[in-house]
Design a protein that fits this description.
By secondary structure, the protein is α/β, with parallel strands linked by helices. It has 3 domains: about 170 residues, NAD(P)-binding Rossmann-like Domain (Rossmann fold), CATH 3.40.50; about 160 residues, Dihydrodipicolinate Reductase, domain 2 (2-Layer Sandwich), CATH 3.30.360.10; about 80 residues, ACT domain (Alpha-Beta Plaits). About 35% of the residues lie in helices and about 25% in strands. The chain has 14 helices and 17 strands. Helix 1 crosses helix 12 and helix 7 packs across helix 8. The longest helix has 18 residues. It is elongated, with a radius of gyration of 24 Å.
Length: about 450
C-alpha cells in the first residue's frame, strides 16, 4: 500500500518536532498505522534548502503554504501556523480540495471550528485537533472516545503552562507577578506580548473546545468568561496558603440544571487536591463523569515533542480511517452533528454559584468588620473563615481576608459594591473564586 503523503504548514517549534518524530519513529508509526507516513511537502519562512529541518530532507520545501494546500499529491495537511488568519483560509481550502486536516491551533478551532467541521462533514474529510488542548495530553481522545459512555458533569483544568509557572514561582519563592513574568519571557514560556497567556484567552480557547466535547454544544468562545492573573499579589498567594488553599488559573465548565458554566479565572483550590499540586509549566485536566467518577489527566502542555506526540497521533488516526465510510467515523466534536444540543445555554457569569475569597484594605477601627458582615448578611452571604492582621505602628488600614460559602455571582457583585462604598474601605476589593472539586 502506498505511503500517506503529509504536507506541513509551519516549521517552527511544533512543526519541526512533528517532522522529527515522524522521521525518527517511522517504523513504529508504520506498524501502528498500517502503512507508511512521510512528509513530502513543507512550508515555512526562512527555510534553507541546503540545510533542511530534521525530517524534511526528502520533502518539497517552500515559503508558500498555498502550494502545499493545492498540491494534488498531499493527502493530509497539517496546519501548525497558529492564529486565525491565514490558518482559517488554508484549512478551508484544504478541505475544499478533499484533503484531511490535522491542526494544533486552539484559537482556530475555538473561533471557527463550527464552520470548519461543517465544511469537513460536507466534503467527507476529517479534521483532527488533539494537540489543540493541553499539548501532549490525549484529553480530546479521552473525552471523545474513552469516556463516551459517561454523562460528563464537569471539567476543571490547568491548561496554560505559562500562568501555572508564574503562580508556582509566586507561591514557592514569594516573588511578585511582574518579576516572574519577566523570567517566563526570558525562558521562552511567555511571548513578548503575554496577554493570551496571563489574561486567560489561551485557556478560554481550550476550555471552549473541552466544553463542546463534554456536553455536545456548539463551540462558543465568545460566551466564555475570562479573567487573568495579573492582579494577584504574593500576599494573596500567602493568604490562600494560610487558609489551606492554592491559587491556580483554572478553566471550569460544568453542566447545571439551567445551562453550562464556561469560565476561566484565578481559583482557590484545597491544597490536598491532586490538581492543586500540579506545578511549573505542567498541565492537568480533571474530568468528572457520572459512571467513571473523577479522572485526572496530567502531562506537558507545550513543547516541540510533547505537542508533536499529539499531532502525529492524529496523523495516524486519519491514516487508519482513510478508507472508512465517512458516516462511520468518530464525530469531530464527540456527538453526531445532527444530535448537537441547542437548548443548553452558556450561563452568564452573574448566574454562576461559587464560594469566594475576598481581600480588602480596611480601616483599623471598631465597627468596620460589623459593617462588612452586615452587608454580606443582608445579601444572604455567609462567611466560612477570615484573617485579620494587626496593623504596624502608624498604619491606618489593615488587610482583611474573608472566605465565603457558595453564592450566586450577582449577589456577590452587589455586596462588593456596597462594601467598597464604605468610608472605612480603601480602594477596590480583590475577589477570587473558590472551587472544591469534590468527587
Amino acid at each position: 500500500m502506498n505511503p500517506v503523503n503529509v504536507g506541513l504548514l509551519g516549521l517552527g517549534t511544533v512543526g519541526g518536532g512533528t517532522a522529527l518524530v515522524l522521521s525518527r519513529n517511522a517504523d513504529e508509526i508504520s506498524r501502528r498505522a498500517g502503512r507508511g507516513i512521510q512528509v513530502t511537502h513543507a512550508a515555512g519562512l526562512g527555510i534553507d534548502p541546503a540545510n533542511p529541518p530534521a525530517g524534511t530532507a526528502n520533502a518539497r520545501l517552500t515559503a508558500d503554504a498555498w502550494e502545499v494546500v493545492n498540491d494534488p499529491n498531499v493527502d493530509i495537511v497539517v496546519e501548525l501556523i497558529g492564529g486565525y488568519s491565514p490558518a482559517r483560509e488554508l484549512v478551508l481550502k484544504a478541505i475544499e480540495n478533499g484533503k484531511h486536516v490535522v491542526t494544533a491551533n486552539k484559537a482556530l478551532i475555538a473561533r471557527h471550528g463550527n464552520e470548519i467541521f461543517a465544511a469537513a462533514q460536507a466534503k467527507g474529510v476529517m479534521v483532527a485537533f488533539e494537540a489543540a488542548v493541553a499539548g501532549g495530553i490525549p484529553i480530546i481522545k479521552a473525552l471523545r472516545e474513552g469516556l463516551a459512555a459517561n454523562r460528563i458533569q464537569w471539567i476543571a483544568g490547568i491548561i496554560n503552562g505559562t500562568g501555572n509557572f508564574i503562580l508556582t514561582e509566586m507561591r514557592d519563592k514569594g516573588r511578585e507577578f511582574s518579576d516572574v513574568l519577566a523570567e517566563a519571557q526570558a525562558l521562552g514560556y511567555a511571548e513578548a506580548d503575554p496577554t493570551f497567556d496571563v489574561e486567560g484567552i489561551d485557556a478560554a480557547h481550550k476550555l471552549t473546545i473541552l466544553a463542546s466535547l463534554a456536553f455536545g454544544i456548539e463551540l462558543q468562545f465568545e460566551a466564555c468568561f475570562t479573567e487573568g492573573i495579573s492582579k494577584i499579589t504574593r500576599e494573596d498567594v500567602a493568604y490562600a496558603e494560610e487558609l489551606g488553599y492554592r491559587i491556580k488559573h483554572l478553566g471550569v465548565t460544568r453542566r447545571t440544571a439551567t445551562g453550562i458554566e464556561l469560565r476561566v479565572h484565578p481559583t482557590l483550590i484545597p491544597h490536598r487536591r491532586l490538581i492543586a499540586n500540579v506545578d511549573g509549566v505542567m498541565n492537568a485536566v480533571l474530568v468528572k463523569g457520572d459512571a467513571v467518577g473523577p479522572t485526572l489527566y496530567y502531562g506537558a502542555g507545550a513543547g516541540a515533542e510533547p505537542t508533536a506526540s499529539s499531532v502525529v497521533a492524529d496523523i495516524i488516526d486519519v491514516t487508519r480511517t482513510l478508507t472508512t465510510d465517512p458516516t462511520n467515523r468518530v464525530p469531530h466534536l464527540a456527538f453526531q452533528p445532527n444530535a448537537m444540543s441547542h437548548d443548553l445555554p452558556v450561563l452568564p457569569m452573574s448566574e454562576v454559584e461559587t464560594a469566594y475569597y475576598l481581600r480588602m484594605a480596611a480601616a483599623d477601627k471598631p465597627g468596620v468588620l460589623a459593617d462588612i458582615t452586615r452587608i454580606l448578611g443582608d445579601a444572604q452571604i455567609s462567611i466560612e473563615a477570615f484573617i485579620q492582621k494587626e496593623s504596624p505602628d502608624g498604619v491606618t488600614c489593615v488587610p482583611l481576608v474573608l472566605l465565603t460559602h457558595k453564592v450566586r455571582e450577582a449577589q456577590m457583585d452587589a455586596a462588593i459594591a456596597k462594601i467598597e462604598a464604605l468610608d472605612s474601605i480603601e480602594g477596590h476589593i480583590t475577589r477570587m473564586r473558590v472551587e472544591y472539586l469534590d468527587a
